[in-house]
Amino acid sequence: MRHSKRTEILEAKPVNLDGFVEEWPEVGMVAMDSPYDPEPGIRVEQGTVVEMDGKPRAEFDFIDQFIADHAIDADIAPEAMAHSAEHIAHLLIDATVSRRAVLGVVRGLTPAKLLAVVKTMNVVEMMMALQKMRARRTPSNQAHSTSARDNPVQIAADAAEAALRGFRELETTLGVVRYAPLAAIALQVGAQAARPGVLTQCALEEATELELGMRGITGYAETISVYGTEPVFCDGDDTPWSKAFLASAYASRGIKMRFTSGTGSEVQMGNAEGKSMLYLEIRCILVTKGAGVQGLQNGSISCIGVPGAVPAGIRAVLAENLIASTVDLECASGNDQSFSHSDMRRTARLLPQLLPGTDFVCSGYSGVPNYDNMFAGSNLDPEDYDDWNTIQRDLQVDGALRHVPEERILAARAHAARALQAVFAHLELPPVTDKEIEAVTYAHGSQELPLRDVLEDLKAAQSVLDRGITGLDIVKGLEAGGFTEVAESLLTVLRQRISGDLLHTSAILTPEMETLSAVNDANDYAGPGTGYRPSGQRWEEMKRLRHVVSASNPEEEVS
Amino acid sequence: MGRTLSLTERGPATPGRHSDEVVIGISPAFGAFFSKTIVELPHAEVLRELLAGIEEQGMRARVIRYRSGSDLAVIAHTAARYSGSGIGVGVLSRGTTMIHQKQLLKLSNLELFPQAPLLDLETFRKVGRNAARYAKGESPEPVPARNDYMARPRWQAKAALLHIKETEFVTPRAEPVELEVAISLADAG
Amino acid sequence: MAELDPALDYPLAARRPELLRTPTGKRIEDITMQAVLDGEVGPEDLRIAPETLRLQAEIADGSGRRQLGENFARAAELTRVPDQTVLEIYNALRPWASTKQRLLEIAEQLDREYTAPGCAELVREAAEVYERRDILAG
């Protein structure tokens, strides 16, 4: 067949490199509208849920039972379930109904009912609801700092730049897992070197992640995965009870943590039990709620290619963020994995979280070029910083980032690398050379960095564990190297464990080291003119871009 | 010009007695319902490269079909257990591949190639070669893993569909079967 | 102890520091850089005390977060359990990892040895569910 010129042009568009598939509801390859999802319903006898969404208690799988016994408020459930799905959706978008009033109804809803509620909503309604239901008033953001070569100097420098640009949480992970202790130290040092109070984590297998947390090398944890069907949960070698116990273990050491889940993981692992992706994700959200965890990272996360490929998949991803917020959990809302070849589609996928604001708009934004991103790439990377800042300014929407002049960025990168040099020297780890510091200051990614002696680094990483090095040793190393402010900042972060203030829903530390959470910074959105709106100093900061023509002298640019 | 693959079942697979063999375990629908990987490499070519990689190292190769599951680790570990050298290669219809060793835990492996879309025929040849070298007791450099962060948006959902489809061909409790492999050039006309 | 009001008393470190002690009996303001350099502060001083977790549970309850409060209450109990034992119990709760007998022994140990009734209850509940769903060992 002969093709038109227009077809040829369209065929060459990046969006056509993305994968799209037909729905297949029988195996769960469907976003949120499946004939096989259960009908909502509940029966409570003597304070116990004896039937939920058409299933009698004797047939509950372990997820059903955990939700019924721990997440749902059985006392109010019959009354809450009596409302129509449309009515509850109206409560969600009606600005005159307070967030608290919505929570009073929602804690009595079953998974199928929550699904029915969001199925009545289009994406604009969901964004309106998310704007109100987000737990923390002030939106925030998270970045990844990783390296294709697990280079700790790069991780430190990019952590510093990300912190300076506004991220309040930083996450790393590894190509070679044994590198973890060095990467976690580098992330912590880099983060505190640029802007105090940034919290850091290292994504690892559950038990190892907990150990680094207990030692105070990392500041919080996030890679605690939950799943929506029993077989997949078991494949992940966990149950809701093991995960609930783990949650308490973190809190018992004063360490903040959240769970992780997302649409598509069950069908990806071939065991969706014929349910829609969103129905299964709602079960994950309620397991998190029932475990008493303060928050959840969701929004499909590493499975984004699956909902992204089916009709209404990105609507379902927004719905999962909305439901997490609606059951009063902190929501770190995805936008954290490579999603599309098309810049237009990447942006369209981002706006539903950016516009209403979430606790962490990205979880996270790649602070390193995507080729260095060891989470297999993010929806955004450093090449998008200026676009992000411009979108914030265009729409007067706070995505928690800011433009920073280059000299400050270079200074922060160098400062972080030097601080790491001091810490490594103090801890007798393989040296960070001046040549590496010079290179990392001006580098974009690992390709511009000198190679490190990987075997020596790995030996040193093991010795960090064997010698029982803790966060306090890093503090001492910083102080010994003359990095007093960085040392103070890290000590202050470590000291947070004693009070446990950061254990509350949506807690972050401000650069002034104040705790901001859903307790003391509760979202108070109640319609036009209320809630969080960027203003004052923050809005002035958002107005700055790389190139803005001066009004007083149009021959110059303001900086 | 393409090659055609003919796989003939020769009864239940048996553990090998030759220490110079590598067993390739293929998944339930490989070369059967499916004829090519996720990036449309013909299964005939994939198997040819794996076999050639093993044979060029002076080792023998045997092919079995795993029928009772579609989990790569299980398929690869089963191949290793049936292999006289204790080294096996598992390969799924969509192309995902693993080198395994009998003595290792099932969830461990010698080399894993999780991103099927990034595997080309040259890589399959190298996988065969490395498997043979492990079988000879050598410690080869792992086959370099390619990384492409745009593989997910393009292939993740299709990979899920392929996995689900493959799982439909699982016969519970069926034993692995020995295969006779014939790869021939398809007639031009 | 006085009832805490989330609106007035949170964050505790800023608003009610007099209520906070490390498990070793120190005040937050004792954890200074000088004290760290003088070797007077060890990792055991950078942990949360069970009393503090109970205060935070009050804040959680007072903010309408029942499950979060319950989690903090279990966490208060676990402050007494050594790191290694915590990891062992977590591993024992994984699917197919333990017999029912083993889980009940752990619950018993949590109850008797560590006075951790909330955690013991969670483990007992798991033992029942795991039996019904056939994910016990053996």
Description:
The complex is a heterotrimer of chains A (559), B (189) and C (138). In chain A, the strands form 5 sheets. Chain A has a 4-stranded parallel beta sheet with strand order 6-5-4-11. In chain A, strands 7-8-9-10 form a 4-stranded parallel beta sheet, with helices on one face. Chain A has a 3-stranded antiparallel beta sheet with strand order 1-2-3. In chain A, strand 1 and strand 2 form a beta hairpin. The radius of gyration of chain A is 24 Å and the shape is globular. Chain A has 559 residues and is an alpha/beta fold. Chain A starts with a helix and ends with a strand. In chain A, 45% of the residues lie in helices and 9% in strands. Chain B is an alpha/beta fold. Chain B has a single domain, classed as B12-dependent dehydatase associated subunit (Rossmann fold). The longest helix of chain B is centred in the last third of the chain and has 17 residues, at 151-167. Chain C has 2 domains: 1-79, no CATH class; 82-138, Orthogonal Bundle (Hypothetical Protein Yqey, Chain: A, domain1), CATH 1.10.1510.20. Chain C has 8 helices and no strands. The interface between A and C is large, with 70 and 63 residues.
Name a few traits of the molecule.
heterotrimer; A: 559 residues; alpha/beta; Annexin V, domain 1; TIM Barrel; 4-stranded parallel β-sheet; globular; B: 189 residues; Rossmann fold; 7-stranded mixed β-sheet; 30% helix
